[in-house]
Specification:
This protein has 247 residues and is an alpha+beta fold. The protein is built from ten helices and six strands; from the N terminus they run E-H-E-H-H-H-H-E-E-H-H-E-H-E-H-H.
Length: 247
């Protein structure tokens, strides 16, 4: 494994079961990367990169609605009519399926022509997103790191289908870290892409430096996690009593 970029080296301490992946949205063909040599679904591209491959894709490399959501192609009435989901058993009827297209994240037509993917140890670009497959315990550390210096709440956004849009486009557009549980998402589950019960974290570029800095400074395992229920209660009580005396 190549060394991690110095600014991301703290992530090596997690020993993730799969490599974190950087993703970049581009208007020009990226240098130093090749196309994957096969067509893939949007969510499958993440797995290719987790397995150590660095590459870029354009609209010809997709086998799903990815190019539609990325604004690479014109709208497809077959999907947006809501007629596909009921045939798959994902929705009871067309109206339920059609509703999701009112709020699925998508990019403006013609705004992106290429996407670059690379595992963290092969990054040759500054990523717009860093996507991490984490255990629940690992993800909990990131949730605390997000809020450690800001007090921000965390959220999880998604729909039963088109999970790729929430993994890639929602955090890219909003600047909000998003998370989903593997095993959720019709297409990802059908394709058996990830072990179930893990957390997929998608961190946008503007959140990443703060989270990394907080990971370097904060306790990953606070003392309360080691004390047990009664020990934690006693610690809280002791802190409250001490603060009352100070007041």
């Amino acid at each position: 494994m190549n060394p991690l970029p110095p600014e991301l080296s703290v992530l090596g301490k997690f020993e993730f079961e799969r490599k974190p992946v950087g993703v970049k949205f581009l208007n020009t063909r990226p240098k130093g990367l090749k196309r994957p040599g096969k067509t893939l679904d949007f969510c499958e591209m993440l797995v290719e990169a987790q397995q150590g491959k660095a590459f870029y894709v354009t609209k010809e490399d997709f086998t799903c609605i990815g190019p539609l959501m990325l604004g690479m192609v014109e709208a497809d009435p077959i999907f947006e009519s809501g007629r596909v989901g009921p045939k798959l058993g994902a929705f009871k009827d067309v109206r339920a399926n059609r509703r999701i297209y009112q709020y699925l994240p998508r990019l403006a037509r013609g705004s992106v022509d290429y996407l670059a993917f690379a595992p963290i140890d092969k990054l040759n670009f500054e990523p717009d997103l860093l996507i991490i497959l984490a255990s629940v315990s690992q993800a909990e550390i990131f949730i605390r790191a997000k809020a450690y210096t800001t007090g921000e709440m965390w959220t999880a956004r998604g729909t039963p289908v088109a999970g790729c849009t929430w993994l890639y486009l929602y955090p890219y557009q909003t600047g909000e870290m998003n998370l989903t549980i593997t095993g959720f998402g019709f297409g990802m589950k059908s394709r058996r892409l990830f072990p179930e019960g893990r957390i997929l974290l998608s961190i946008p570029w503007d959140k990443l430096p703060g989270i990394i800095k907080n990971l370097e400074e904060m306790e990953w395992v606070p003392e309360s996690y080691t004390l047990g229920p009664e020990g934690h209660k006693k610690k809280v009580q002791s802190i409250v009593e001490e603060l009352k005396k100070e007041a």
